Amino acid sequence: MLQYIIWDINPEIFHIGSFSIRWYGLLFALGFLIGMQIMTHIFKKEGKPVEDTDTLLLYMVISTVLGARLGHFLFYEPELLIKNPLQVILPPFAGLASHGAGIGILLALWFYSRRKRSIETGQTFLWVTDRIAIVVALAGAFIRLGNLMNSEIVGRPTDLPWGFVFINNDEFAKIPRHPAQLYESLSCFVLFFILLAVWNRKKAATPHGSLLGIFLIVVFTLRFLYEYLKENQVSFESTLFLNMGQILSIPAVLLGIFFLVRSASNHPPARN
């Protein structure tokens, strides 16, 4: 009978000299590349200028990386940000916060939509964020798989038969733990298919803000709950009633509820 799973995956796929290709980087890039193809499909189906997806990709890459890096330092290690602000943009980019990435993406899409919301393109903030929510769910699944390959963001000890022993994590290598990264990855995959199905059903007639609302509610409600199964990322969280991930998830869920309720009275006309 299976008692636990030994997780001994090398984070590196291969290396040449000091240059290495890691699973995390590959999966991170795949999230953007596949997401780009999905957005191209959506733009074609809804009659939007396909060339705009190149600009959208640039906004997404920059806002995701900068938002995640800045969010990590602001939420978890503010003293390091004050000491050396250049760490945000300098490699090796250790430390990424999903809440920071979310804030960065929303701000970037607001600026993007300011340029593209004309009658000709019709890419309003809620139109863009609804469609981006689909591919962000997929990207989130790939990123959490990358965390699994890195043996990071591990769960608390468990005696369940699918507990993982993370051999390559020196701090948490001795006993089986919840594969919290896998839980979040699978949840994001399921959410991706749900959002894609909801969009595919109505396409341009999808109520503005509905997909964004569903995304925020599901992702951050689950994030709040999964935090109970995860080890804290930094020591100061042990002194808090809720850890930082849970604290930051509450306003995200409330924002999602706001967009979902608002979408109930916001039904754009369908296009043939």
TrEMBL record:
Q: Name one GO cellular component term.
A: plasma membrane
Could you tell me the keywords of this UniProt record?
Answer: Cell membrane, Lipoprotein, Membrane, Transferase, Transmembrane, Transmembrane helix
Under the heading Pfam families, the entry gives: LGT (PF01790)
EC number from the UniProt entry? 2.5.1.145
Q: Where does a 1,2-diacyl-sn-glycero-3-phospho-(1'-sn-glycerol) bind?
A: R144
* Spans through the membrane: 23-43, 55-76, 88-112, 124-143, 180-199, 211-229, 241-261
| Localization terms from the record | Cell membrane
- For this protein, what is any one GO molecular function term? phosphatidylglycerol-prolipoprotein diacylglyceryl transferase activity
Functional description taken from the UniProt entry: Catalyzes the transfer of the diacylglyceryl group from phosphatidylglycerol to the sulfhydryl group of the N-terminal cysteine of a prolipoprotein, the first step in the formation of mature lipoproteins.
Question: What's the protein name?
Answer: Phosphatidylglycerol--prolipoprotein diacylglyceryl transferase
Which organism is this protein's natural source?
Arsenicibacter rosenii
The encoding gene is lgt
